[in-house]
Design brief:
Keywords: Membrane, Transmembrane, Transmembrane helix. InterPro entries: TPR-like_helical_dom_sf (IPR011990). This protein is mainly α. The protein contains 8 helices and no strands. The chain has a domain of 101 residues: Tetratricopeptide repeat domain (Serine Threonine Protein Phosphatase 5, Tetratricopeptide repeat), CATH 1.25.40. Helix 5 packs parallel to helix 7. 24% of the residues are buried.
């Protein structure tokens, strides 16, 4: 009788450990499958990708698909995958990487071959700057994105207001507030 509670306690602890081990085994199997799909994407052309890789919801697999498409020169399809992934999981690592890669793709397309030459597509450059800013809002410590944003700003500087325009007062209204002298108002 005295041993029964001890045996029950060890039995429950054993079942909990088996449950946790089963959970991690299932996660490991999922990661192994995703890695196999990513390896297949890297080595094959798009037409040869497996049906499971095409329909995968794993962010890492979708990111690998987008990278493979971008390397193959299919920028429109890669951009769509990057954009979808960055919108589905913006705060995840895969979403931030997708946003960074999307901005880089736009920057490369806009800048062309030479960084000092004329910009081929100013709207793409503006989109790249917007994506870098969005990424920096999510991850302020991303120095690669900061550097690339600075590079994009060097290619097409932002229009800056002159100091005279900012300091000019267009209209001046007299406002009376009870209890406060006009000199005390901001």
């Amino acid at each position: 009788m005295k041993r029964l509670p001890i045996h029950l306690m060890f039995g429950v602890a054993t079942l909990c450990c088996v449950g946790v081990a089963g959970y991690y085994a299932a996660r490991l199997q999922h990661v192994v499958q995703a890695n196999a799909e990513i390896a297949a994407i890297d080595t094959q052309k798009r037409e040869q990708w497996s049906k499971s890789a095409m329909d995968s919801n794993a962010p890492a697999v979708r990111l690998a698909q987008a990278v493979a498409l971008a390397r193959a020169g299919q920028h429109a399809e890669a951009g769509k995958l990057y954009y979808d992934l960055s919108r589905l999981a913006p705060s995840s690592e895969a979403g931030r990487l997708a946003l960074y890669d999307l901005a880089n793709m736009y920057l490369r397309e806009a800048a062309g071959d030479s960084a000092q030459g004329p910009v081929r597509s100013p709207p793409m450059l503006e989109t790249a700057k917007a994506r870098y800013r969005e990424l920096l809002r999510l991850e302020p410590g991303n120095w690669d994105a900061r550097y690339n944003l600075e590079r994009a700003l060097r290619l097409a500087p932002e229009a800056q207001d002159t100091a005279d325009d900012v300091n000019d007062v267009k209209e001046q209204h007299n406002i009376n507030v009870r209890g406060a002298a006009p000199e005390e108002l901001p």
